[in-house]
Amino acid sequence: MSTAAIIPAAGLGLRLGGAEPKAFREVGGESLLVHAVRGLRAATAADLVCLVIAVPAGTEDIVAKLLDPYVGSATLQVVAGGTERTDSVRFALELVPEDGIDCILVHDAARSFVPVEVIERVVGAVRAGASAVVPVVPVTDTIKRIDSAGRVVDTPDRSALVAVQTPQGFEPGLLRRAHALEGAGVTDDAMLCERLGVTVQTVEGSDEAFKVTRPRDLILAESILAERRSL
Ligand code: C5P
Q: Nearest Cα to 52, choosing from 3, 102, 6, 84?
């Protein structure tokens, strides 16, 4: 049983601010990207045979050197990302070997502190036969659909809504077929699978798998890390 992981880390992180791309921002003295890689390795251990990371163009060599100590026996490839997240994932996917891999994880570098159990649940569900798996948490806000003028159109039943996290796990052939589709407006990989009519399975996510997006998220990240280091 072999797993490949793709980490889209090519976003600039404009909402976060700062002089460097988001994946290179540090929490507890290490970059978000290093935290993300370490988490994936901890959960998948010997099963992780291949890691492909999409980074801002021009940083490929630096990132390859930086991550080398963290990948264990997995092969590491670093590729320049694209304009949209879905382009970055597609470019990375092209480097994942076609043979010998039965699960591909796609994991945002910005969800650097996803607990090991969440990753294990995703991989476990793919291994158990689901072809597309996403971790989810309930939404706590009331969500409204609005029109282009900002007027409320309707209010979906909150009990039927969830927020979706990463890593998302896929049967490799399905992920390749999904990324062959046109990707405009696509914000996660499961969405492409839905367009193929495939049923996407959910597993329990975690509040700690939040996406570092705004400056305040760095404070939350520091506090999660400090708590883990004190255990
Ligand atoms: O922008 P957002 O926070 O939704 O990005 C989610 C993940 O996708 C981040 O890890 C980011 O680095 C990555 N990304 C990418 N290529 C882009 C845009 C975002 O790899 N063009």
A: 6
Q: How many domains does the chain have?
A: 1
The CATH number assigned to the domain holding 30 equals 3.90.550.10
73-92 per-position pLDDT tens digit: 999 999 999 999 999 999 99
Q: How far is the CA of 191 from the centre of ligand 1 (A)?
A: 16
Q: Tell me the residue range of the domain where 58 lies.
A: 2-230
Instruction: Round to whole Å and give the CA distance between 52 and 74.
Output: 10
Q: pTM for the full model?
A: 0.97
Q: Is 117 in contact with 203 (CB distance < 8 Å)?
A: no
Ligand 1 centroid distance, CA of 107 (Å): 10
**Which residues have C-beta atoms less than 6 Å from ligand 1?**
8-11, 22-23, 54, 81-85, 88, 108-110, 211, 213
Under DSSP, is residue 140 helix (H, G, I), strand (E, B) or coil? coil
